[in-house]
Design a protein that fits this description.
CATH topology of chain B: Sufe protein. Chain: A
Number of helices of chain B: 6
Shape of chain B: globular
CATH class of the largest domain in chain A: Alpha Beta
Distance between the termini of chain A: 64 Å
Number of strands of chain A: 15
Shape of chain A: globular
Structural class of chain B: mainly alpha
Helix content of chain A: 25-40%
Number of strands of chain B: 2
Low-confidence stretches of chain A: 1-7
Number of helices of chain A: 13
Order of helices and strands of chain A: EHHEHEHEHEHEHEEHEEHHEEHEEHEH
Oligomer: heterodimer
CATH superfamily of the largest domain in chain A: Type I PLP-dependent aspartate aminotransferase-like (Major domain)
Helix content of chain B: 40-55%
Mean pLDDT of chain B: 87
Structural class of chain A: alpha/beta
Strand content of chain B: 5-15%
Largest interface: A-B, 20 and 21 residues
Distance between the termini of chain B: 33 Å
CATH topology of the largest domain in chain A: Aspartate Aminotransferase, domain 2
Strand order of the largest sheet of chain A: 2-8-7-6-5-3-4
Largest sheet of chain A: 7 strands, mixed
Number of domains of chain A: 2
Strand content of chain A: 15-25%
CATH architecture of the largest domain in chain A: 3-Layer(aba) Sandwich
Largest sheet of chain B: 2 strands, antiparallel
Strand order of the largest sheet of chain B: 1-2
Number of domains of chain B: 1
Radius of gyration of chain B: 14 Å
Chain lengths: 415, 143
């Protein structure tokens, strides 16, 4: 079946995002921080309200009609996520709070059951703390070894030592796209090399899933983690996709209601995957409202989203180059998701962010949850601009004008 | 009743209040920050670091003819602008005068509402350090 034709025009969709027409500091909002969290279209906001107005009940446990309806809506999103990423069945989809929790779940449930002292987990030096600290904690808890794949001055992984690092390794956990460098890593090739070495693979797709089509079968990994809130959905919904045989063999992580089949004085038996990983009442409304977010993305088409972001990024890289900025990561827009981190020479990134904020531009600054990248680039912080489907040329122009104002101010200040 | 500001501080606050636009206020703050001299190398030691700031801030103080002489510097210019208010604006007070002078004067500048919460905390952390230094000097200790 061919992909559905895009029904939404990028030029008109800004109106679907109410926050983009607000003026938080008295100036029109220019939102350049979608890599932190995306804004939400009206259909998602409405779905969230409608759930509480019409459908609210706890799921999976009551016989009444309202509870059945809520359960049906919740499970409908699970099926939709499964279709969205090409899963074999909806039971491969575990709902968590966010990507961080998805990775912690794998570390604590799969890791504790399958790793022993001395076992190696391979990571990269461009990982977000979410894909570093859970493994460093496991190192403390179990005595596992960690190996790190470095990256070069163009923000590309240095793969010469990869096969050696993977030899005998139990797991390779890497980010598909870097939240700082913007690099899109060659995920399929990396997965293939890990598989050839007999390692399992976890892919942190937090910065990938919002921006380009993700098919878990084609990818060939064992676990894939991402967050709904970075792809137009509400906060509070993370996804862990896992191979069903692995999920079924894994022990639960957190105990409580929903995750059990039967509890007696002697103990308990697990529910099936994925429900055994969803102890307690989940963020039902947010999961339900994630469904229209996925529909919205499908209507636009991720191919169109990626092409749009690259067009904005090409111009942005030209502007940064003209401003004399130090840009981190790939030189061109092609190997990037729609984000770029940089520094203006001699100006602290917090200063730039603060002045831009006073002009209405919302950017991220600081260490960006990646101390390893900051250490490698020998800086304390960076400024990051990130785009999504609702950004347009006017945002890039606002950035250009904002950076020009910053440079004038600091030139004057230094005079 | 309006707080009586020391003349050097009043001049800076008045300048900041000549503009309404937030970006314009930052522009003035950055210019003020540029007037803050870098501190001597012997003062740039871990003991003089102010904790709880996102930027690297050093503060030191001594007494000259019974009056406080603060020295301070930050690696971010907006913070240096705040340091101008604190270090240049409040040097020259006697310790007992400084100790009763409320840090809330920052609210009079109108700058505070434009600062991120972490920067506001940073401002109060810097002032708190200055307070401790002034107390030590008042009691005859070396700061």
């Amino acid at each position: 079946m061919s992909a559905p034709a895009p029904i939404l025009s990028l030029a008109s969709l800004r109106a679907d995002f109410p926050i983009l027409s607000t003026k938080p500091g008295g100036k029109p909002l220019v939102y350049l921080d979608s890599a932190a969290t995306s804004q939400k279209p009206q259909v998602v906001i409405d779905a969230l309200s409608r759930f509480y107005e019409e459908d609210n009940a706890n799921i999976h446990r009551s016989a009444h009609g309202l509870a059945n309806r809520a359960t049906e809506l919740y499970e409908r999103t699970r099926s939709h996520v499964g279709r969205f990423i090409g899963a074999t069945c909806a039971r491969e989809i575990v709902f968590t709070r966010n990507t961080t929790e998805s990775i912690n779940l794998v570390a604590q449930a799969w890791g504790r059951a399958n790793l022993r002292a001395g076992d190696r987990v391979v990571l990269t030096e461009m990982e977000h703390h979410a894909n570093l600290v859970p493994w460093q904690m496991l190192k403390e808890q179990l005595g596992i070894e960690l190996a790190y794949i470095p990256f070069d001055g163009q923000g590309q992984l240095e793969l010469a030592g990869l096969d050696e690092a993977l030899k005998g390794a139990k797991l390779f956990a890497f980010g598909w796209a870097s939240n700082v460098l913007g690099t899109i890593n060659p995920a399929r090739g990396l997965v293939a090399r890990a598989k050839a070495a007999g390692a399992l693979v976890l892919v942190d797709a937090a910065q990938a899933a919002p921006h380009f089509a993700l098919n878990v079968k084609e990818l060939g990994a064992d676990f894939v983690a991402f967050s709904g809130h970075k792809m137009l959905g509400p906060t509070g919904v993370g996804v862990l996709w896992g191979r069903l045989d692995l999920l079924e063999a894994m022990p639960a992580w957190q105990g409580g209601g929903s995750m059990i089949e039967r509890v007696s004085l002697q103990g308990y038996t697990y529910n099936q995957a994925p429900w055994k990983f969803e102890a307690g009442t989940p963020d039902i409304a947010s999961v339900v409202a994630f469904d229209p977010a996925l529909t919205y993305l499908e209507s636009v088409g991720l191919g169109q989203v990626q092409a749009h972001e690259q067009a904005l990024m090409r111009r942005t890289l030209d502007i940064l180059s003209a401003a004399g900025a130090q840009v981190y990561g790939p030189a061109g827009a092609e190997g990037r998701v729609g984000l770029v981190s940089f520094n203006l020479p001699g100006i602290n990134s917090y200063d730039v962010a603060q002045v831009l904020d006073s002009l209405g531009l919302a950017c991220r600054s600081g260490a960006l949850c990646t101390h390893l990248i900051m250490d490698r680039c020998k800086v304390a912080g960076m400024l990051r601009v990130s785009y999504y489907l609702y950004n347009d040329e006017s945002d890039v122009s606002a950035l250009e004008a904002g950076l020009a104002r910053v440079r004038r101010m600091f030139k004057k200040g230094a005079a | 009743m309006a707080l009586a500001l020391p003349p050097a501080l009043k001049a800076m606050v008045d300048e900041l209040n000549t503009v309404d636009d937030l970006t314009d206020k930052y522009e003035i703050l950055i210019e003020l920050g540029a007037k803050v001299p870098d501190i001597p190398a012997e003062d740039k030691v871990p003991a003089n670091l102010v904790h709880g700031c996102q930027s690297v801030v050093h503060i030191a103080a001594s007494l000259q003819d019974g009056k406080l002489a603060f020295r301070g510097h930050a690696d971010a210019m907006v913070v240096n602008g705040l340091l101008a208010l604190l270090v240049l604006g409040l040097s020259g007070l006697r310790p007992e005068e400084f100790l009763v002078f409320p840090p809330d004067f920052i609210k009079e500048t109108g700058i505070i509402k434009t600062l991120t919460p972490s920067r506001v905390n940073g401002f109060y952390n810097i002032h708190h350090r200055m307070h401790l230094l002034a107390e030590g000097l008042k009691n005859g200790g070396a700061a």
